[in-house]
Amino acid sequence: MIELDKRTQEMLEEVRSLGRTHIRPMGLEADRTAMPPPVDHEFYLICTRQGGLVSRMIGADESPNALDWKPVRNFLVGEECAYWDRGVALSLPGPGLGGPALRNTGTPEQRQRFLSIFEDHSKARWGAMAMTEPEAGSDVARIKTRARKVEGKHGGDEWVLNGQKMFGSTSARADWVVVWATIDPELGRGGHRAFVVERGTPGFEIIKIEHKMGSRGYETASFVLEDCRLPAENLLGGEAFYEARKGFKASMATFNMTRPLHTAHGVGMGRAAPDYAVDFVRNEYPAQGRRRQRALERLARIRRGLHTARLLYLNAVWLAKTGQSNVLEASFAKMYSPPVILDAVATALDILGEAGVRNDLLLEKLYRDVKILDIGEGTQQVQRHVVARQMLNMPGS
Ligand SMILES: Cc1cc2nc3c(=O)[nH]c(=O)nc-3n(C[C@H](O)[C@H](O)[C@H](O)COP(=O)(O)OP(=O)(O)OC[C@H]3O[C@@H](n4cnc5c(N)ncnc54)[C@H](O)[C@@H]3O)c2cc1C
């Protein structure tokens, strides 16, 4: 195993300490009340510790030239935060899924304008990304939210958005949301455009916050866009960017970083389960008994699976950081990890027996949390499609 640099080790230690004292308890409370943690003193304590480093680290930094520890560190810190509670980790301030979209597609001016707001850690700010619609989930090419270019009231171009988005993580609290729309559904993937919609823009309205089975530490929301007018500068990447199929490619490139990050979170959550069960086995089963030995064998198998999932996401990150294509590897990580993670929690529950299903214990909550993880960023079936398209060298892959 490679040795982590000193800063990464310090960061992980910091998260562990915060995790024990704040992140895990806040996550259990959020699950019980079905409400994300309030943005109060305790919340700010997490956000501002070490100059806000913890909350900033949770988002993935995809600068392609960075072959140093920092990018890998972000993912490892993300994994560790999710170990304590993924929902709370995602509720912490930062650009969220909007970050990769902005970094992949935004112009330098847009990156400066929308990402620099996160540098002031005394204020909690969020970003978000909205692709999913009532009739476009896995098949993102079917989005219908319409973008029309019109003449601005004071000259120059403006854009008008109309449509509905759903399941946008942290959209309800976001300072801005990257919204994917189409200039013409007939153009399919080639019609995709991304816009930054700022909070308070007339026509942008949150209509529903979902009650989820798990991962309740952060909210997912539906919103509508009704004649929502945006200045030309809010078209992500600018007009020149959207030649041929570049719009769709940009949205897909975003997933090449968010899929490994999703996997990192899953590995963190999955690790929490065998750790819990090991404590149980240590305390409850006789030292030399067969029952103990069988349980530990099952847990060893789980640890192997989680370790493999970690290597898969790190490999995908490393390829991206070194400027190489990681489409396959990002999908491998996302495809491989959900069953392994679900199995980790299910096996831990089995080992605890009836004690495991009590809803005042972590495992029952974890089971609901990890099930939901499989859906976002493309399900396993969708990842198989991605891999198949790559194998066939199909356009758009
Ligand atoms: C907690 C949570 C947070 C989310 N956050 C965001 C967010 O921030 N932004 C955002 O844009 N979206 C977000 N989503 C939405 C998520 O990306 C979608 O739910 C996901 O893309 C699946 O879409 P769907 O739910 O419409 O399912 P469907 O696309 O309807 O899929 C249903 C089932 O059919 C399968 N399936 C679909 N197509 C095929 C096919 N061609 N072949 C074989 N099987 C297929 C799928 O694998 C799945 O099992 C979030 C979802 C959740 C649960």
Give a description of the structure.
By secondary structure, this protein is of the alpha+beta class. It has 3 domains: 6-92, no CATH class; 113-241, Butyryl-CoA Dehydrogenase, subunit A, domain 2 (Beta Barrel), CATH 2.40.110; 246-391, Butyryl-CoA Dehydrogenase, subunit A, domain 3 (Up-down Bundle), CATH 1.20.140.10. It is built from 11 helices and 7 strands. Strands 2-3-7-6 form a 4-stranded antiparallel β-sheet, with no helix packed on it. Strands 1-4-5 form a 3-stranded mixed β-sheet, covered by helices on one side. The longest helix has 39 residues, at 246-284. Mean pLDDT is 87; it is low at 59-67. The structure holds flavin-adenine dinucleotide. The site of flavin-adenine dinucleotide (FAD) has 20 residues, from strand 1, strand 3 and helix 11.
